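// run 5 | inverse folding | seed 20
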């Protein structure tokens, strides 16, 4: 058996873009699900959702997946078919500009942590067959079937877009039990899957690998791959916990998140977060004050925001509390600061 590309050995717990969450929210809305219900316990803010460049933790997306799967447990395939090459940003453009399907698959496996996959995909040749297998890894049991189906459906959807037609599927297997309705599975995969199998995989005709892609461009591929390398290197660097907390707070709309909220978004307990912050020489309140103080200066420096509006934007219940905090931060009142800036 010859492996086309080395499987990703990294855990799925890397920062990721916001696009997948946006897609899942739209999918949920089509099924009558409220956005706030799907975002529950995720710690994702309106500011993050409004910024297409936002990055969130895998645990935050997993919280949205869990909320969606709890309400639509058999909708993994339907959700997966909504993922297109362009959903994956620069990685998707790398797929589109690749010379062949094999080149696109190699790129996908090399930079799988730039995708939204939670499974661990591998691709291997077995004679004249290509076997795409999804390893469940450390997926929580309550969302594993949904995510396996979502990820495999997304893979097939993107490959189908690349070749401009159907993927020559030989068989599809899932390790979980069959859902009540498999019509969506048959539409996406072109065959009825086998369930309660020993693995999660798709087997296709390996002749697919040599198919030339219509938008192939060596220059575009090289540029996209360089951008993928840069993004991957940055995301794979494990940030200090204080930097992670600061990043989440900087994206807060009104600083309404408590420390347990932030801990949940980072996938740790409040006690663990408190200990790790202490070990890094800071605390949650100190970071909150730091980020709040910086935003207060930005608001007041514009000269267009009153003290009352600034207090509300920063999450203070009343102006007096904001004035007291500002004096503690900068040794002067907000009004005095504004006067000193000529605002």
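// decoded
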């Amino acid at each position: 058996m010859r492996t086309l590309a080395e499987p990703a050995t990294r855990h799925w717990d890397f920062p990721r873009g916001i696009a997948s969450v946006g897609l899942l929210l739209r999918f949920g809305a089509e099924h009558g699900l409220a956005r706030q219900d799907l975002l529950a316990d995720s710690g994702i803010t309106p500011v993050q959702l409004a910024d297409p460049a936002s990055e969130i933790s895998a645990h935050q997306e997993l919280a949205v997946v869990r909320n969606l799967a709890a309400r639509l447990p058999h909708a993994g395939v339907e959700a997966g078919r909504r993922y297109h090459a362009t959903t994956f940003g620069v990685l998707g453009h790398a797929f589109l500009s690749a010379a062949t399907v094999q080149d696109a698959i190699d790129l996908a496996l090399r930079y799988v942590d730039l995708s939204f996959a939670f499974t661990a995909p591998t691709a291997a040749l077995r004679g004249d067959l290509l076997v795409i297998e999804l390893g469940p890894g450390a997926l929580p049991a309550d969302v594993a079937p949904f995510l396996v189906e979502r990820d495999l459906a997304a893979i097939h959807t993107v490959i189908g877009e690349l070749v401009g037609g159907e993927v020559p599927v030989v068989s599809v297997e899932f390790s979980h039990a069959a859902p009540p309705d498999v019509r969506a599975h048959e539409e996406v995969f072109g065959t009825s899957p086998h369930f309660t199998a020993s693995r999660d995989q798709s087997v296709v005709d390996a002749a697919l690998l040599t198919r030339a892609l219509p938008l192939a461009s060596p220059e575009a591929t090289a540029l996209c791959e360089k951008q993928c390398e840069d993004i991957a290197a940055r995301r794979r660097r494990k940030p200090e916990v204080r930097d992670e907390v600061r990043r989440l707070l900087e994206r807060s709309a009104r600083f309404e998140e408590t420390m347990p909220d932030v801990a949940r978004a980072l996938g740790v307990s409040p006690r663990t977060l408190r200990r790790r912050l202490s070990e890094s020489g800071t605390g949650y309140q100190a970071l909150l004050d730091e980020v709040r103080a910086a935003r207060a200066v930005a608001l007041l420096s514009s000269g267009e925001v009153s003290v009352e509006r600034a207090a509300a934007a920063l999450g203070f219940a009343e102006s007096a509390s904001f004035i007291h905090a500002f004096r503690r931060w900068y040794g002067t009142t907000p009004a005095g600061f504004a006067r000193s800036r000529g605002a």
